[in-house]
């Protein structure tokens, strides 16, 4: 019985690892498409990619370890088109996910929006330099745009890295917690700004505190969108729980309007 339980546990772990791997491979394609359309996305997405999650360093790591290649019983396998296939030594065609990673890194160096928000530190430079030997003629023949990436990495290798951070201060308002922020810190923005000034810049500065205070106070000027009751046309606070589209001020108005709304409620 114990052997059966152990075998079952091993199968579950293998299945879990398989799912995690396939999801990870799928995320590479999603990331690549996001980078291709980065100009249409908000600045918070750029910040998360360049700062919070450090996507270029993740790409460097994946390109070095190549998790889509494995050795089993002295045979080399490659994961392509959602399945493991025996790797043909005479066929050097890149798998889709590896091509996506290289092109994603290329976007980081060619997109002004991404490049300006990504601070090159000594640590990052070191890991980016490790990719230079991978940019061989075979790879460049298959993905010609990577020639520009190779040139960019070469220029980076010759550049001096400043120890001064140029990272901008970016504020982001999350609509889901806006009310909580306003209720908790109403009329206290100037005090908060002065405290933030000390924390961020090392010493109190009236001008910086004033600037931060004005920035915070802009939050108070944002007006939430007002919805009108579909029945009485008064301000509504609740919406139909089924279609999530129609708004009502009360249960009574929702019941009264049901005969008219039910044909569109889906």
From TrEMBL:
Its encoding gene is what?
A: ZMYND10
Keywords from UniProt, A to Z, are:
Metal-binding, Zinc, Zinc-finger
Protein's name according to its UniProt entry: Zinc finger MYND domain-containing protein 10
Pfam families, from UniProt? zf-MYND
Give the organism the record lists: Sipha flava (yellow sugarcane aphid)
Q: Does the keyword Metal-binding apply?
A: yes
Tell me the ranges covered by the MYND-type domain, including all copies.
229-265
Q: Does the keyword Signal apply?
A: no
Q: Name one GO molecular function term.
A: zinc ion binding
Of the GO CC terms on this record, one is:
centriolar satellite
Report the domain of life of the source organism: Eukaryota
User: What is one Gene Ontology biological process annotated in the Swiss-Prot or TrEMBL record?
Assistant: motile cilium assembly
């Amino acid at each position: 019985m114990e052997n059966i339980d152990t075998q079952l546990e091993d199968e579950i772990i293998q299945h879990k690892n398989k799912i995690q791997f396939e999801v990870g491979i799928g995320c590479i394609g999603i990331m690549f498409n996001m980078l291709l359309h980065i100009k249409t996305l908000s600045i918070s997405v750029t910040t998360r990619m360049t700062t919070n999650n450090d996507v270029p360093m993740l790409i460097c790591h994946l390109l070095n370890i190549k998790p889509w290649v494995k050795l089993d019983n002295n045979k080399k396998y490659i994961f392509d088109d959602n399945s493991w296939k025996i790797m043909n030594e005479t066929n050097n065609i890149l798998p889709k996910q590896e091509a996506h990673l290289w092109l994603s890194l290329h976007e980081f160096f060619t997109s002004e929006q991404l490049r300006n928000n990504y601070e090159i530190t000594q640590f990052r430079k070191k890991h980016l330099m490790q990719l230079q030997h991978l940019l061989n003629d075979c790879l460049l023949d298959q993905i010609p745009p990577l020639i520009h990436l190779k040139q960019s990495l070469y220029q980076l290798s010759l550049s001096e890295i400043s120890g001064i951070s140029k990272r901008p201060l970016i504020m982001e308002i999350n609509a889901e917690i806006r009310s909580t922020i306003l209720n908790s810190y109403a009329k206290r923005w100037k005090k908060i700004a002065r405290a933030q000034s000390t924390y961020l810049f090392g010493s109190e500065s009236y001008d910086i505190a004033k600037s931060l205070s004005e920035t915070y106070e802009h939050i108070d000027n944002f007006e939430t969108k007002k919805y009108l009751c579909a029945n009485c046309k008064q301000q509504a606070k609740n919406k139909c729980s089924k279609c999530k589209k129609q708004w009502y001020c009360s249960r009574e108005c929702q019941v009264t309007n049901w005969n008219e709304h039910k044909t569109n409620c889906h």
